[in-house]
Specification:
Blueprint (H helix, E strand, L loop, with lengths): L2 H26 L6 H7 L7 H32 L5 H39 L9
Helix pairs in contact: 3-4
């Protein structure tokens, strides 16, 4: 066993003890650290699940849209700094085209998701139901 192995074992043991011992001490004590007060004051949302899903989709589509616009901007920057080199200009055009295609796909997906969710809300709402039994 070399000196390096002994040092590695000592560091691993010390690291494990540094994490395990405080947890063991807290597990055996009746120490009140205020977690009950925090747990009782924080509650999960009580919004409709359809509304929550719509919000998540809108946020994700917004982030993807920002990424697509950044791709277009990067392609424009590459084109401006190409200095007339045809291979760099071609790469920049491809980058811009990929950004535009991505933006079109993202906007289409957002439109479809918005349509489907609005139809789902209309179909499942109790006040807008026209079915009679």
């Amino acid at each position: 066993m070399t000196k390096k192995d002994i040092v590695r074992i000592a560091i691993a043991t010390a690291g494990t003890a540094a994490f395990a011992l405080p947890l063991a001490a807290l597990a055996t004590s009746n120490l009140d650290v205020g977690l009950n007060q925090v747990g009782n004051s924080i509650s999960l949302g009580n919004a409709d699940i359809r509304t929550t899903i719509a919000r998540i989709i809108n946020v994700l589509m917004g982030l993807l849209g920002i990424i697509a616009v950044i791709m277009i901007l990067i392609g424009g920057f590459k084109w401006m700094t190409a200095g007339g080199d045809e291979t760099k200009v071609g790469d920049a055009r491809k980058f811009i085209l990929q950004g535009i295609v991505g933006l079109v796909v993202i906007l289409s997906a957002w439109a479809i998701a918005t349509f489907v969710l609005s139809q789902l809300v209309t179909a499942t709402s109790t006040s807008g139901s026209t079915l009679q039994g």
